Amino acid sequence: MTAITEFVDLDRRGRIAVLTVNNPPVNALSHGVRLGLRDGLRQAVADPALGAIVIVCAGRTFIAGADITEFGKPPKEPGLHEVLGLIETSPKPVVAAVHGTALGGGLEVTLACHWRVGVRAARFGLPEVKLGLLPGAGGTQRLPRVVGVPKALQMIVSGDPIGGEEAQRLGLVDELVDGDLAAAGVAYAERVLAEQRPLRKIRDMDDKTGAVRGTPEVFAEFRKSVARQTRGFRAPENCIKAVEAAVALPFEEGLKRERELFLELMSSAESKAQRYIFFAEREAAKIPDVPPDTPTLTITKAAVLGAGTMGGGIAMNFASVGIPVTVVEVNREALDRGLGVVRKNYEATASKGRLTAADVEKRMGLIQGTTDFGAIADADIVIEAVFEEMPIKKEVFAKIDKLCKRDAVLATNTSTLDVNEIASATARPESVIGMHFFSPANVMRLLEVVRGAKTSKVAVATAMAVGRRIAKVPVCVGVCYGFVGNRMLHQRGREAEKLILEGALPQQVDKVLYDFGFPMGPFAMGDLAGLDVGWRIRKGRGVKSPVADRICELGRFGQKTGAGYFRYEKGDRTPRPDPEVEKLILEVAREQGIQRRAIPEQEILERLLYPMVNEGAKILEEKIAIRASDIDVIWIYGYGWPVYRGGPMFWADSIGLKAVRDRMREFGRRGAEGWEPATLLDRLVDGGKGFRDL
Ligand code: NAD
C-alpha cells in the first residue's frame, strides 16, 4: 500500500490498482482527495504491471460531495474537472465501487469512470440544487446520457438520491455486489480485462440524449410539472437549461454551457441565501454553554399528553422513527378521535405510495393510547400538549412530577405560556423545558427548544438531540411571550390588520407576501390555522383586533367553517375574496374615522416585514435567540419564509440596515405606533454593521 496523499492510498492487487479515498467523515472531495486521485491515477496508468484501476472509499460512505469548507475560497489545483478528465481519458479501465452515498461531486467521479459497481444499499444523487447550484463537474452532461433525459431532469432538479436497485435498472450501476466491496471492484475490473471490453466513456454515448433531440416538449412539460415547487428559485431553471445543452450540444460545448450556468448560480443572491441557510442550520445545533459532550438521556420511550391537533402529530414523529410512545387523554372518546386522525394521516401517506400498509401498522403499533396517567411512569421524555390554560398546565405538571421517573425530561408544547411558571408547579424545574412544535406537528420541521431559567444543560442537550432524532430542526430559544417565531409573527399580524383598515384588502396583502415567496399571506394563513384560536387568546388577554374579532363574531373561523377572511368552496382550499369581508372592513374603517387610500405593494411589503426584523433585533438584544442566523432558521422551517431569501435577518442585511431603519423612522413620522427602532438596530446602523457582524 502506498500513500499518495494524506487522504488517498494506492494498493496493488495483482494487475489491478485500488485507489482508496479515506477522508472522514464523508470522504468529501477536499483538495488532498483531488490531488491523491490525480497522482494515484497517473502512477497506475504509468505502471506497466497494472491493467485497470478501481476507485473505492474507506469508512461509511463513498465520496458524499464537495468539501463545503472550501466554498467561497480561491480554487486550488487540481480542480475536479481536471481529475475527472484524467479518469475518463485513462487508457486503462477505471471502475468505481460505491457504498453509502455517492452524492454531488462523488457521483460525478463515478460518471467519469468507465464502469460502476455498488452495494444494494448505496444511494446516488446530485443534490447541488438544494444549495442553489447545479452539478458543475459534468453531472448535467453525463447523467442524462446514462439514465435518459426525463430521469436526469428529475434527479438534478429535485436533488433527491435514488437507491442501488433503481440505479441498476437505469444503467447507472453496472452490477450490484455483496461482501468486500474493494474485492468486488477488483473482480469486476478483472472481468473487464479478461473480456477485453472497449472503454465505455459516457461522454461518447448518445442514444438516450439523441432520443429526445428535436422534442422540446419534453422540457416544456417538465418545466410545467415542477413550476409550483420551484417557484422563485433560480437553480432549477439553470439545471434544466444545462440538461437541454446535453441534448443539443456536443459534449465539450455542453460542459462549457454547464460552467456558465454554474457560475451564474454561484454569484446569485438565491444561492448565497441557500448556502447561508445550510450553514445556519448546522450552527443552530451549537449552544455556547452546552458543549457537544454534554451528557444526554437515552430515549427509549416517550409519552405525549393530549391527542388533539398537536399531540397526535407529535406522537407520529416518535413512531415514525421507531420510538414507542404512550398517548394519554382525558377520556376514551378524545383518545379514539385523536388516534383516528393519526391513522388517517399515515394512511394518506401510504395512499401516495410513500409508506407501505405494513409500515402504517408498525407505526400505529408503536403508539399506545391510554386514559391512565400511570402509564407514563417509565417514559424517558414526556411532552405535554393539553389545552393552553395555565391552571390546567400546572395541574398536569404537578401530576406528572409525581408519576415520572426521576431523570425524565418534562416538556411542554405551550405556545404562549410562561415555561418558568409551568416548571414551578414541579419539584424539579431543572427537568422542565419547552418543546414548541409547529402545526401540522408531523410535517413542520421547526422545533423551538425553550430553555427555562432553571432548565438543566442535560435537559437542553437531550431535547435538542431528541429533536434531531425525530427529524426536526431544533433551535434553542429563551422564555418570552411567543418565543421567537410567534413573537415576530405577531408584529407582522399587527401591521397586516392596520393595512386592511388603511386601504388594502386581504387579497392584496396576501399577494405581496406570496409574490415575495411565502406559500401564503397572513390572512390565508389565519384562515388555515383557525381564527378562533387567536380570538380566544385575545379575549383571555383583554386585547382587541377589530376586524378579526368582527369576523369571528360572524362564526367565520376560517377554512374549517368555509369562511374567514376569504370564502372557500366545498372541498377546495383556494381562498376567494369575499365582498362581505370587504364591506365589513370598510365599515370598521369608517367607524374609526380612517381615510382609506391606495397602498403601494412596496409599502405593504416593508410594513409587514420590517417590524419583524426590528423585533428580531430586540430578541437578540434580550438574548432570547443565541444568534441572528437562528432566527432565520426559525422563519425558514416554521413559517415558510422563502429559503432563497435567507430569512428575515439575512434579508435585512442584504437590503442594508440603514435603509431599513430610515424607512421605519419614516413610517414612525407619519404618526403610527410601533416603529421605534430597536437599540441594537440603531447601534448596528451607527457602526455601519449588519446582523452578520454580531
Ligand atoms: P387541542 O385542543 O386540539 O388538543 C388538546 C387535547 O388535550 C384535547 O384532546 C384534550 O382532550 C386534551 N387534554 C386536555 N386536558 C388534558 C389532560 N389534563 N390530560 C390529557 N389530555 C388533556 O389543542 P392543540 O391545538 O393540540 O394544542 C395543544 C397545545 O399545543 C397547546 O398548549 C397549544 O398552545 C400548543 N400549540 C398549538 C399549536 C397549534 O397550531 N394548534 C401550535 C403549537 C403549539
Could you provide a short overview of the structure?
With 694 residues, the protein is an alpha/beta fold. 49% of the residues lie in helices and 11% in strands.
Q: How much beta, percentage-wise?
A: 5-15%
Shape: globular
Widest sheet: strand ordering: 13-12-11-14-15-16-17-18
CATH topology of the largest domain: 2-enoyl-CoA Hydratase, Chain A, domain 1
Helical content stands at 40-55%
Tally of helical segments = 29
CATH C-level of the largest domain: Alpha Beta
Low-confidence parts = none
Number of domains: 3
From the coordinates shown, what is the CATH architecture of the largest domain?
Answer: Alpha-Beta Complex
pLDDT average, as an integer? 97
End-to-end Cα distance: 49 Å
**Which homologous superfamily in CATH is the superfamily of the largest domain?**
2-enoyl-CoA Hydratase, Chain A, domain 1
Q: What's the number of extended β-strand segments?
A: 18
Summing up helix and strand content along with how strands pair, one would put the structural category as: alpha/beta
CA gyration radius, whole angstroms: 28 Å
Largest sheet properties = 8 strands, mixed
SSE blueprint:
Blueprint (H helix, E strand, L loop, with lengths): L1 E4 L2 E6 L2 E6 L9 H16 L5 E6 L22 H9 L5 E5 L2 E3 L1 H8 L2 E4 L4 E3 L13 H9 L1 H10 L3 E2 H6 L5 E2 L4 H14 L12 H4 L6 H14 L4 H14 L2 H16 L2 H15 L18 E4 L3 H12 L4 E4 L3 H20 L5 H10 E4 L10 E4 L5 H14 L5 E4 L6 H5 L8 E6 L8 E6 L5 H13 L3 E6 L6 H18 L3 H11 L5 H8 L1 H11 L4 H8 L25 H13 L9 H21 L6 H12 L8 H8 L1 H13 L9 H8 L8
Parallel strand pairs: 3-4, 4-5, 5-7, 6-8, 7-10, 11-12, 11-14, 12-13, 14-15, 15-16, 17-18
Antiparallel strand pairs: 1-2, 2-3, 8-9, 16-17
Helix pairs in contact: 1-2, 2-3, 4-5, 4-10, 5-10, 10-11, 12-26, 13-14, 14-15, 19-25, 20-25, 23-24, 25-28, 27-28
Bound molecules: nicotinamide-adenine-dinucleotide (NAD).
The site of nicotinamide-adenine-dinucleotide has 25 residues, from helix 13, helix 14 and helix 16.
